[in-house]
């Protein structure tokens, strides 16, 4: 994810972060180089402890780098102090997995908080809060307390509060992880709308590939404090390279193996090799499987398949089996036509 600096909302350069630990230091992040394009929704995915939260907290100065730097709309966050740091924080809103609302304040009171801290005059606060409540669709609930709201409604309050100071960047720390799938969709739709309508850059962290598929234009995979793969989401879904990316993807594609195959899957040969073929577009494999048969004499059994979309662009996953001793040839053939293949196992 490289790009011109002027098109970037956030740039991480050689960023490292270590924490003191008994007898030494623990490296939470190492050698992070990443450009978050302005106006993008960029997702960072990684397992627990990979360094996602630490990376996000660098962007609003809650953590400072021990190496390298992070700049937000041209401002070096690690070097900023006092008024400069406060200005960055007004320009970078944040939403949280557990919403972090004040239980003693109403919806209106929670949303007003950052404006009160920024010293905005009372009359202006009221008008701005009304506008924000409208923007996130919370109209009838303005005088309710957090305890009287559902999870999705609480997250809307969190989003409105994060937008109060008119930031150019919104950070999202697992904002949908505590929500049910249906509510997750409505919150993701709201984030997508805010991104489009306000031109806001969103940097989100998640451990769910489905969130990235549904909303992220760009993504990066982080493992043990390092970025192992980054780029446009569509490219990574259709041509994943790193094993960690592939393993995240295996849980999210719509294509599933029939139970009678999945239950018999084993590591070693004999019999048939089960392969996942990933392709861009909706129909890319039809001629390929025919050519596999006519040109190589290998007939593939189709075990499952699904077409999905990232934004308006379709991509597909096909699960096939071929005789185990032909697996390498079949995959080499498909690879030369730009299809991505992955061996899922073998069945007798
Ligand atoms: N304040 C701290 N002091 C010491 N170690 C820390 C601190 N913050 C984070 N770490 C360590 O840094 C590493 C990365 O942690 P981080 O919370 O960024 O990961 P994460 O990917 O967000 O994980 P999770 O999904 O579980 O929140 C972990 O090994 C963690 O123990």
Question: What does this 3D model show about the protein?
Answer:
The chain has 348 residues and is α/β, with parallel strands linked by helices. The chain folds into two domains: 8-250, P-loop containing nucleotide triphosphate hydrolases (Rossmann fold); 259-347, Alpha-Beta Plaits. Helix content is 35%, strand content 31%. The protein has twelve helices and 14 strands. The protein has helices at 52-59, 82-91, 107-117, 122-135, 151-163, 181-198, 209-215, 233-238, 243-250, 259-262, 285-296, 327-336, and strands at 8-21, 24-37, 41-45, 67-72, 75-76, 92-96, 169-173, 201-206, 218-223, 226-232, 272-280, 301-310, 313-323, 340-347. The strands form three sheets. The protein has a six-stranded mixed beta sheet, with helices on both faces. Strands 2-1-4-5 form a four-stranded antiparallel beta sheet, covered by helices on one side. A hairpin with a 2-residue loop joins strand 1 and strand 2. Helix 3 packs across helix 4 and helix 5 packs parallel to helix 6 (181-198). The chain is elongated, with a radius of gyration of 23 Å. The two termini are 43 Å apart. The model has no long low-confidence stretch (mean pLDDT 92). The structure holds adenosine-5'-triphosphate (ATP). The site of adenosine-5'-triphosphate has 11 residues, from strand 2 and helix 1.
The CATH C-level class name of the largest domain: Alpha Beta
- Low-confidence runs of at least 5 consecutive residues: none
Could you give a short account of the major beta sheet?
6 strands, mixed
Strand content: 25-35%
Following the backbone from N to C, one meets helices and strands in this order, namely EEEHEEHEHHHEHEHEEHHHEHEEHE
Tell me the CATH superfamily of the largest domain.
P-loop containing nucleotide triphosphate hydrolases
- Judged by helices, strands and strand pairing, the structural class is alpha/beta
- Cα-to-Cα separation, first versus last residue: 43 Å
Q: Ligands bound here?
A: adenosine-5'-triphosphate
Helix amount: 25-40%
The total domain count is 2
Give the helix tally: 12
The Cα radius of gyration reads: 23 Å
CATH fold descriptor of the largest domain:
Rossmann fold
- Beta strand count: 14
- Summarize model confidence as the mean pLDDT: 92
Backbone shape: elongated
Q: Major sheet: order of its strands?
A: 6-7-8-3-9-10
């Amino acid at each position: 994810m490289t790009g011109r600096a002027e098109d970037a909302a956030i740039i991480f350069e050689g960023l490292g972060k270590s924490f003191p630990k008994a007898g030494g230091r623990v490296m939470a992040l190492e050698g992070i180089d990443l450009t978050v394009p302005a106006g993008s929704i960029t997702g960072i995915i990684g397992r627990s402890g990979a360094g996602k939260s630490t990376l996000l907290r660098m962007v609003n100065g809650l953590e400072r780098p021990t190496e390298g730097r992070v700049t937000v709309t041209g401002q070096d966050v690690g070097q900023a102090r006092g008024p400069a740091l406060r200005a960055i924080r007004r320009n970078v809103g944040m939403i949280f997995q557990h919403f972090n609302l004040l239980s003693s304040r109403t919806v209106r009171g929670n949303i007003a908080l950052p404006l009160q801290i920024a010293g905005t005059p009372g009359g202006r606060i009221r008008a701005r809060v009304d506008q924000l409540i409208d923007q996130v669709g919370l109209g009838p609930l303005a005088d309710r307390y957090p305890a009287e709201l559902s999870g999705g409604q609480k997250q809307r309050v969190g989003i409105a509060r994060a937008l109060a100071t008119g930031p150019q960047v919104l950070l999202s720390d697992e904002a949908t992880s505590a929500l049910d799938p249906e509510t997750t969709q409505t919150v993701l739709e709201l984030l997508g709308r805010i991104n489009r309508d306000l031109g806001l850059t969103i940097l989100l962290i998640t451990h769910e590939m489905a969130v990235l598929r549904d909303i992220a234009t760009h993504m990066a995979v982080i493992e043990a404090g390092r970025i192992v793969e980054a780029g446009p989401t569509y490219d990574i879904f259709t041509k994943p390279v790193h094993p960690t990316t592939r393993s995240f993807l295996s849980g999210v594609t719509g294509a599933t193996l029939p139970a009678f195959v999945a239950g018999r899957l084993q590591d070693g040969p004999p019999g048939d090799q089960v392969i996942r073929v990933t392709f861009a577009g909706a129909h890319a494999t039809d001629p390929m499987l025919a050519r596999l048969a006519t040109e190589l004499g290998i007939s593939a059994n189709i075990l499952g398949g699904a077409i999905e979309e990232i934004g308006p662009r379709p991509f597909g996953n096909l699960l096939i089996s071929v005789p185990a001793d032909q697996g390498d040839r079949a995959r080499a053939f498909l690879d030369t036509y730009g299809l991505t293949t992955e061996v899922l196992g073998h069945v007798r």
